[in-house]
Amino acid sequence: xxxxxxxIGIGFLGLGIVGSQVLSYIKENKDYVExxxxxxxxTKSVYxxxxxxxxxxxxxxxxxxxxxxxxxxxxxxxxxIECMGGAGMEETYDAVMGAIHNxxxxxxxxxxxxxxxxxxxxxxxxxxxxxxxxxxxxxGCIPICRSLMQMSKGDEVTKxxxxxxxxxxxxxxxxxxxxxxxxxxxxxxKEKGFAENNSSEDILGFDTLNKMRILLxxxxxxxxxxxxxxxxxxxxxxxxxxxxxxxxxxxVFYAEKTMQDDINCFVGPQILKSDSMLKNVSExxxxxxxxxxxxxxxxxxxxxxxxxxxxxVMFDDLIDVVQSNYRFEEIKPIGCNCLSGDxxxx
Amino acid sequence: xxxxxxxIGIGFLGLGIVGSQVLSYIKENKDYVExxxxxxxxTKSVYxxxxxxxxxxxxxxxxxxxxxxxxxxxxxxxxxIECMGGAGMEETYDAVMGAIHNxxxxxxxxxxxxxxxxxxxxxxxxxxxxxxxxxxxxxGCIPICRSLMQMSKGDEVTKxxxxxxxxxxxxxxxxxxxxxxxxxxxxxxKEKGFAENNSSEDILGFDTLNKMRILLxxxxxxxxxxxxxxxxxxxxxxxxxxxxxxxxxxxVFYAEKTMQDDINCFVGPQILKSDSMLKNVSExxxxxxxxxxxxxxxxxxxxxxxxxxxxxVMFDDLIDVVQSNYRFEEIKPIGCNCLSGDxxxx
Lengths: 346, 346
Fold this sequence. Notes:
The structure is a homodimer.
Chain A: E1 6-13, H1 17-28, H2 30-37, E2 39-47, E3 63-65, H3 69-72, E4 79-82, H4 89-101, E5 105-107, H5 111-127, E6 132-133, H6 144-150, E7 157-163, H7 166-178, H8 182-191, H9 200-204, H10 206-220, E8 222-224, H11 239-243, E9 249-257, E10 263-271, E11 285-292, E12 296-303, H12 307-323, E13 332-334, E14 336-338
Parallel strand pairs in A: 1-2, 1-4, 2-3, 4-5, 5-6, 8-13, 10-14
Antiparallel strand pairs in A: 7-9, 7-11, 9-10, 11-12
């Protein structure tokens, strides 16, 4: 096949920890892509905010630029890989929309930008007939986005719930197993790399809320206004409640369609049933349940974080955008009611 | 969109219980397919072995024929839906290959035919540039085939294991929870619809072995000769072992790649670890674990059987074949060694 491979130009939007890992993964798999797909992923140009910054990947053969139009308007770029986690979500949104308007397929990772602007981005992808994937944004290695995109066609997804935040899982399970306080557990989580220095979005539930919003779009084809949902912080859990032998508490999300065609939902700490499968979720694993009218209950489990893991999933997305001609279904805004944790069981 | 829809001609190969459900599902979703995809799935002709047989679905506007060439060589058919479970696997294979040779996309369900002839069918699909899907053949509603097809690209799947046979799950859990004998449990399974009249393939492990073979092709890109594997029957389980409080025994499959580049595998009853997630599998649910080098451990859980469930999954496959341009990776024959159940833990 050598010399006959079809060249697919790749442009990176952002080259931080995630972006560097994806770039390495693409380089490592050069022969594989050539052999199996008769293609070559060629990364020519990368948008960064600071050209002088030291990176974990060799960029000697790549053009680094602080001008995003050099990527999104570049006629030699067919696919953009967005890894702008460090940037603001408006900047990310503008870059992504620029790419779509110029007919580039796009593999995204920034969950906050997707949570807020996802409907607009999806509509633009449909309109400009480009392929859009964002598996890495929710549940890490779990193929939940593609499953919701591809499954239960003509069926009706009635419930989606689960655990999608590793920081809170680490804290709550450490409080339980080690009989320590919230503050001690948070400190340990930071030391072990399960929590960022500023973990308030994880603890307060906003990270999980963002991920729930992304999943509801794909699974139920609805857009919930996050301002309508008040997540419950795990900070205020009574340390005594985790000191008893029995209860396992996890930060969960729960969303169900109501008969009135709106959504009941909850984000926050929940005591799990004694036979709950969610009890198996520890460390940086996530687990997501999806219930549909005809196909019943499905569950997905896997690592929710990790650089190598994220790179692997974004590489799968990259392969997918060049092989598929997927069209997203229309997403409608929907009202939602906040449940309290004692009105449902997990 | 009315009147402007692109018509996709569908030809059924077989119209038994599964086929009838799929046909109904397609009819029920006529408006959905038109609205979302601007397409119409039009079922014109159906291959059956007995035209006079009474069916669960209205066939008044459909041409039933016992001549399979009328389907597989029909220029108005773009997708064939294979539901020939009742037929012999050679007949199924011939029909499927006829369809592929005539450029039809194909959605299959017959696991036995896929287990034995899967490599040839996959190679033919690649060669004739048609789309092939068979999600319903393993794990029912679990999107395991598409996940293995789409995930861990350039990664290496090192282990696949799990529970994929509802009959054996029902029998073993009934023996445990009700303290009854194997024969009593089998009788109950038949009464409740969890077992066929002739359940020997389920009990002896051949059904699970067939499904393992299908998964190994997709996940590890290898073909194991089923003659090299001796599944262990669940029939010979000592009734006493299930009478104790502790052990939960399930019929499992387990396959791991070795350093010598062959496969170690096992099919049969296995005592589950006390904290095994597989313990949550009961009734007609299945659960499958996949371990990869970079993306780590993933698990999938869902209903393994059911008419409506199977129809839903085959309908998803149908939507997929008209949206994707997937190419299977090359599958290589591989040697395998039979493990005994005490050499690994699940």
